[in-house]
Design brief:
heterotetramer; A: alpha/beta; Pyruvate-ferredoxin Oxidoreductase, domain 3; Rossmann fold; 4 domains; seven-stranded mixed β-sheet; B: alpha/beta; eight-stranded mixed β-sheet; three-stranded antiparallel β-sheet; 12 helices; globular; binds thiamine diphosphate; binds iron/sulfur cluster; binds magnesium ion
């Protein structure tokens, strides 16, 4: 059966051998053919020599969650042949390097073996040993072009762009590509039943990873100070920020930098720098991952209590501890929501894709300054490091940052006396003053006990008064965080709540369940504290499934504690092995829960 | 040696260049123990800012946690202050400085705050040459937590409870020198005549100025057996170099005999004049400074004075090529690339 | 009306002036008179010169929670006269230093002013200025001896013990004491209606603070390595541990130390040392407070995931951030329960008084080794730093530490192959091997992804298998933590749940409420995870009030998330100003809640 | 210089003193990049333990996080290992050592792990003189996170992405000297002849032995412009002192001409023989070692060899007066004071 624009590939490689470039070209070419596509990079925590996989899913319906069935596996890593052969769905195909004979034990009667002598082909063309290894990747790309019917003109165009200044390299690529292509055309029935055909579904779309989009958001939000410590998978946020700043933030007259990026000595210093810069009036942020969040705990509490804005991007990876640094998870929700000792509560934002990384990064700065408090942007490895097809980013030139209540020199001059923590506005926020502006605004910021005038205190009532306002302030932020995205159906039997990168899998699962007559409303929360819409959605459903990627049901915990919904109706669907969520996880989870419920009602006492 | 005091009763109640009296540089009442060395350092800071005529609102004062770290409340009430977290002042000051390079930064820390929990941040603030004055009010103990040894306590030093310290001390001065600090000095809280000029020079230095001030803790470390007591310090103090700082704006002739003084021109154009107490002392030769320190340490002497200064230092902003306008003050319009640029950029995301 | 052995005093002093000694003597003397007594030290975060208060409550009924009504205030701090005068209950008395006239504005017709010219008296007796200041405290103690009818023989005995080797000092004390005493006898009607009378209620009791008791527990548990960084209010744990070790842990033959106490450079290092020592087979612990807990987050996650025992004593103080370092709170419950990024859950123990600090410190080591995981002993400033009257500590010489599953050389020798994380026992714990024992036990401990054999993994199923076991292990600990203390009444209308230092106030409140016909069952939880008794208690009550000392209802959160009780029935009574809890807080909280409920039922829709 | 190799094909497959071959000191297969300097250090460690005949189960190997920190898996499979958290190995090793002083501790770290996030712990492990070998596999970059500059990158060094480092390097060797470290050495991963004797001497030193090993990162820091590349290092290397370590148990005569060698007797009784490449070099004079280092640094040379050793060092346990029996092995009966003592004690609690 021919399946056009609806299949999944898995490319099994060894890391550090240059496959990323070939795999990226394939993904990009499909994107340029106008076909919805997604690519998931499953790489090891290592630099060279270990197994790495790249999964490409092509879906004319626009389903971009991770697929679990592979129609075609490209097995380039002899070490993982065994596993890789098993991953091909029955009736599918396996492409392998036939320079060496395949182990007879790996034979599977239900799949097609496509042998391409990649090493031999490349050894014939190239003499340099490095080139021979690198070009094998381009050679299998060539075969795939033939097998899947990739538009060769687009590939040419991509190579042209990529190697515009490196002719020799372009030629090598062309020769390898051609060799793989020719071999496939000659030896196989091309294209395969799974194949591509141009569409126009990606016209107003871009291919972007979440970390790049986050960095771009920080640039557009007007962040000028960034401090960080390298950690996978957040490092590329700062790499991108650096690049964008170099491009857009050089002073046109002096050539100097309208920004300052500090590679800190560790995460404690990174958050300290952000707090110092924010205290001093700059928009500042850091990006990190789980271990960094743990290390930042003490100073996050300081920023909370002293009411200093701070934007913290947490690109989550699989915890606890070092965990699996190159695997995704949504495991830092509670660690961020209640970060630090004592009574603390923070604002969290949950982008679901790179496009939202951009918009929510900007929202993060506005919220941090409006509420004078740390704000966490909770991305994850799947969103942050994989390329996603997203709607083109839009920018309203009328946007101006919400700097919150900051007093200028004139205002201070007119005041009888400035008090830092009163009077409060309807958000329960008081005005702050910045250093260097006016002596009347001089204020001694402290993480120790203080009263509403900003004075040091150890008196219970004075202390409590400020703490109570902070609690009210946090609740007030519920009105200000982005509203959840709710999809309501007629006759929905239950609700599904999810967040962040679960979105594509949930949407696909809901569609699939609907085909089986199982109708669900969905809500994707985008911010914490939860607002009225979240309350209303939970109230409107007797049964709610909470889909999230961690072991301990952290979103469910937050919903339980921070809404009025009875916890009994919130059931968890948890997937936390470290790979991006697939719709099957959700479908299986929902059906299992439903069966349990009906079994439960049958035996109800 | 300081310039001779004029013959008036309250010389410092006279307005300085910007019309402020010394009162304007004071802060709220100290809540430290009566006689605490830190209060003397506070007084020296007050006088230094007054004499430098720094506008209070252009000063940012930061600290960690400890008795020493409480002191920023006690000086320049008209300046913004930040009593942060234990050992984290260097990073917060670094970020603050990144955001607004136009202010004068003064960080106050203790030996516990700087040499134990905060040593990583201190080391890296030195390495970045953050433009600030960093004072360690060094008493060899954790004052606020009641007298445990700090990492600057000397071997054999006795605590009030009678314990004897057995771990070698970390000397912030030699550490800073080793790390390439661009301004390194040491003084004694009880010696305002030496301390004030050093502080003024440090405040005018462009880059990280470390000033280690021996500042006895009268409550927990001023007994016999302590090597950071008033008595011990007075006995073992060696004034290596005395610095008289003269701001460029009001340069005057001072009575230094030529040949016994060496001038260092600081980045803001001001000049520090150093008196060589020892003939072969040159505070710009890092290598020999270190040997000198070691020499005196071995003799049981505490070398004080402006010990090292690097005239060529480029600070964190130079290194980072930051623009001159404080980042916190650049209008948003200059920071946002706008929609056209975004559209253009997105062509590459296809 | 004469009130014997049932009143409260408040002593207002300036810190650093030597009042602690006089106040302690008073408390100790009352204790030796056999009368239940409690002392609360309300001191500033400062070394000298700021206001400090000491409250003594005498209660023949054994109510030792903080009192809020003072029958007699000793006003030794001119700066706080204003506040102090207001604190005297109507009909009570104020003792002040009449060397100087009292400000007329402070006059109150409803109380008695007892002027004692303390400064004058001492200036007459002493010449040294330091002595003059110090001895004023002993002089007012003398007056109190007369006014309250303290047994002078006991005071003599105490001075004798205290200054056995310092005769001059003893003499000075005697003279000052006598001067204050004589003045009072001469000028006032001694004793006052509030007065003391010997009892025998403290015979098998001791006067001890929680930190000392904790340290003693660590000694008896066999801890040999302790690492810490000074922080109020936990510092005295290590001070006491050091003293006890010096007394009990010198090797009799060599005179060398059978222990090693490391003052770390910070809390990150302290917990690192504990983990290193525990990994290596020693019983090791650290003591800290909130900021330290925040800083330890990352390594706590490592110990959780790599399954290394660690005992962490958190003597809680008022947060967040630096907060009020010399004020009490129960604000680190959540920070400890879920410490670190990723999915983590820890074991918590909640001692309610010094005696339990001792027993639960020992339990902490046994649990940490049995479950190979961090265990938190959650004390607080009130328990840790105040002297409490407690039952005498008992020791069973048959006690032997539960070291958990540790393989010896013989066992390892016999094994075909050692795997670190399997097989698991009924606690879901696998056996560990210690370094230095046998090459066959050699194992590479890591905080990165590992499978049940202990090998490195990035494979979802293998990772999940271990994580799921860790969740089961945590649940299994519910059977092992100390059971809650439950008091059931006939016809109780509701339940009260509390923890730790809330106990005396809750018990007193329950008694008082019972007198008004309001009958409550009580449960004091002593450990997390919660076991069956906790579940059963919650299930047995329609309405449960949760009394705790923090803003965000952290115990209630834990009960909500980690039991099956519907959250709707858990109502909070929160007191978090930083002073020890008093029964009035609880009574007011309960009655307010009950009124609200009946109001609610009246307007029920 | 090492002793001459006997004329057999696989000399190290011959059993050592305790009957083990070099294979018994190997670990699992390296997963580092082919050609990574760290693998050479691993090989040198394997050889050192083999030659020292250390029983594998008496070795404890610890590390932080980084490519370098992965390496303990690759040597002495029969030893317990602990791949801990980034920058925290020193404290974990300190605690481990406190619990059991009878093991041989080897800590492996990277320049990122040691000089940035972990510098506070490193400094204090040095200060405590924890008895361990601490190796920094120094490549000037963060390998595992893909090539950011570390704090040991030289000014002007170029990253693979083309960025130029502008912050001064921290030299762990001079830092350690300043902090009073008792054994300080530097070598080069590519120079096993020098490295093995140094490691053996360090392993036998009682106290903290810091060995800084320049270990190029072939993937992110072996290009032109890097100052930690193989090429650069080979060019600028200056072998200051070569150390030939001879365990006491099998002391043999080595062919050093008298007068050109100086012997240092280590605490375990073994002897390190140092060849003075320069006539005036004395590795026991901290003061002059520092000058030497500085001198060579200014010449653009990397001084390698056993640079400093302190024969009188007392380690953490001496300082703490810990008993000789490993604390982890003291039976509980010896640790518990028992009920009688408790009763007695409680008389004072009244
Ligand atoms: C994270 C953290 N740990 C511990 C403390 C407790 N603490 C407060 S001040 C201090 C030491 C202060 O010593 P130093 O910096 O020398 O200041 P000094 O009081 O001697 O002037 C400590 C350990 C704290 N506030 N925060
Ligand atoms: C708390 C924390 N922050 C950041 C990281 C990410 N990280 C892993 S290795 C590494 C740097 C390694 O550099 P180095 O120690 O020089 O080792 P190399 O890889 O160069 O051998 C970093 C920053 C981490 N694992 N943990
Ligand atoms: S305790 Fe020591 S350092 Fe602190 S205020 Fe008193 S004298 Fe100063
Ligand atoms: S990235 Fe560099 S340090 Fe890491 S394994 Fe590869 S060569 Fe070695
Ligand atoms: Mg100090
Ligand atoms: Mg490195």
């Amino acid at each position: 059966m021919i399946r056009i624009n609806d299949f999944a590939l898995k490319l099994a490689n060894v890391n550090g051998t240059g496959s990323a470039s070939a795999n990226g070209l394939l993904m990009q070419a499909i994107f340029r053919m106008g076909i919805p596509v997604s690519g998931k990079n499953l790489f090891p925590s290592n630099i060279q020599g270990l197994p790495t996989w790249y999964e490409v899913r092509v879906s004319k319906h626009g389903h971009t969650a991770r697929a679990l069935d592979y129609d075609l596996v490209i097995a380039m890593n002899a070490e993982t042949y065994g596993r890789d052969v098993k991953e091909v769905r029955s009736g599918g195909a396996l492409l392998y390097d036939s320079s060496w004979p395949l182990d007879a034990e790996l034979a599977r009667p239900d799949i097609t073996f496509l042998g391409v002598p990649l090493a031999k082909l490349c050894n014939e063309i190239f003499t340099d040993s490095r080139e021979r290894i690198l070009m094998k990747n381009i050679a299998y790309l060539g075969s795939l072009v033939a097998l899947l019917d990739v538009d060769m003109a687009i590939i040419d165009e991509l190579l042209q762009e990529k190697f515009s200044k490196k002719k020799a390299l372009r030629d090598s690529n062309h020769r390898a590509l051609r060799a793989g292509y020719d071999f496939a055309i000659e030896h196989f029935d091309c294209p395969l039943p799974i194949r591509l055909e141009k569409m126009t579904a990606t016209d107003d779309r871009i291919l972007i990873d979440g970390n790049t989009a986050t960095a771009l958001g920080c640039v557009y939000a007007g962040a000028t100070v960034a401090a960080w410590y390298p950690i996978t998978p957040s490092t590329s946020v700062m790499d991108a920020f650096k690049e964008f700043c170099a491009a857009y933030r050089k002073d046109p007259e002096t050539g100097k930098n309208n920004y300052c990026i500090l590679q800190a000595e560790d995460e404690l210093a990174a958050i300290g720098m952000v707090i110092g810069a924010s205290w001093n009036g700059a928009r500042a942020f850091t990006s990190t991952s789980g271990p960094g969040i743990s290390l930042m705990g003490e100073l996050i509490g300081l920023a909370y209590y002293a009411e200093i804005p701070a934007v913290i991007v947490d690109v989550q990876r699989t915890g606890p501890s070092t965990g699996m640094p190159t695997r995704t998870q949504q495991g830092d929700i509670l660690a961020c929501a209640y970060a630090s000792h004592g009574d603390t509560k923070h604002i969290l934002l949950f982008p679901s894709d790179p496009a939202e990384c951009f918009t929510l990064a900007i929202a993060a700065f506005d919220l941090a300054e409006r509420f004078q408090t740390p704000v966490f942007l909770l991305s994850d490895l799947d969103i942050g490091m994989n390329d996603w097809v997203c709607p083109r980013l839009k920018w309203d030139d009328a946007y101006r940052p919400n700097r919150g209540r900051v007093l200028g020199a004139d205002e201070l001059e007119k005041m009888a006396k400035f008090y830092r923590y009163s009077p409060e506005n309807e958000d329960h926020v008081a005005a702050r003053s910045l250093p260097g502006v006016h002596s009347k605004g001089a204020f001694f910021t402290r993480g120790s006990g203080h009263n509403k005038l900003g004075g040091y205190t150890e008196i219970p009532d004075e202390y409590q008064e400020v703490m109570d306002r902070l609690a009210r302030k946090h609740r007030a932020a519920a009105r200000a965080v982005p509203a959840p995205i709710i999809h309501k159906q007629v006759d929905a039997a239950f609700g599904i709540v999810s967040l962040g990168g679960c979105n594509p899998a949930v949407r696909e699962a809901v569609a699939a369940l609907a085909e089986r007559g199982i109708i669900a409303d969905t809500m994707r929360v985008r911010g914490f504290p939860f607002g009225e819409e979240v309350e209303a959605f939970l109230a409107a459903h007797d049964q709610v499934f909470v889909v999230e990627q961690n072991r301990d049901a952290q979103l469910r915990t937050l919903l339980t504690m921070e809404t009025s919904a009875p916890k009994e109706k919130l059931k968890s669907i948890l997937v936390y092995g470290g790979f991006p969520l697939s719709s099957r996880h959700v479908i299986d989870g929902v059906t299992a829960q439903l069966e349990q419920r009906s079994a439960g009602s049958r035996v109800a006492r | 040696m300081p310039s001779p005091k004029p013959n008036v009763v309250h010389p410092h109640l006279r307005p300085n260049q910007i019309g402020l009296t010394i009162r304007d540089y004071e802060g709220s009442m100290s809540t430290l123990c009566a006689g605490c060395g830190h209060d003397s350092v506070t007084a020296a800071i007050v006088r230094s800012f007054y004499e430098l005529s720094t506008p209070p609102h252009l000063i940012a004062k930061l600290s960690g946690i400890g008795c020493s770290s409480k002191t920023p409340t006690y000086f320049v009430g008209g300046a913004h202050g930040f009593n942060s977290a234990h050992g984290r002042m260097p990073s917060i000051a670094t970020g603050a400085n990144a955001a607004n390079r136009a202010l004068t930064y003064i960080g106050i820390s203790g030996d516990g705050d700087s040499l134990s929990i905060g040593i990583g941040q201190l080391v890296h603030a030195i390495r970045r040459n953050v433009d600030m004055l960093y004072i360690i009010e060094n008493n060899g103990v954790y004052g606020l937590t009641k007298g445990q040894f700090s990492a600057s306590a000397d071997i054999g030093s006795k605590s009030k409870r009678g314990e004897v310290n057995r771990f070698g001390p970390i000397d912030p001065v030699s550490l800073a020198l080793d790390l390439g600090a661009t301004f390194v000095a040491r003084s004694f809280s009880g010696d305002k005549e030496q301390l004030v000029p050093i502080l003024k020079a440090a405040l005018s230095h462009k880059g990280f100025a470390l000033v280690d001030v021996i500042s006895p803790c009268v409550t927990f470390n001023d007994h016999e057996g302590s090597t950071k007591s008033y008595l011990y310090t007075r006995k073992h103090l060696l004034q290596l170099i005395s610095a008289d700082f003269v701001p460029f704006a009001r340069e005057i002739t001072v009575d230094y005999a030529p040949g016994t003084a060496t001038s260092v021109r600081l980045h803001d154009g001001s000049v520090v004049r150093l008196r060589k107490v020892e003939a072969d002392y040159d505070p710009t030769d890092r290598q020999r400074v270190a040997s000198h320190l070691e020499l005196h340490r071995n003799r049981g002497e505490i070398a004080t004075g402006l010990l090292f200064v690097d005239k060529q230092a480029s600070d964190m902003h130079d290194t980072s090529k930051t623009t001159e306008v404080p980042l916190a003050q650049i209008p948003y319009e200059k920071l946002c690339p706008g929609s056209a640029k975004l559209d253009e950029l997105q062509k590459t995301f296809r």
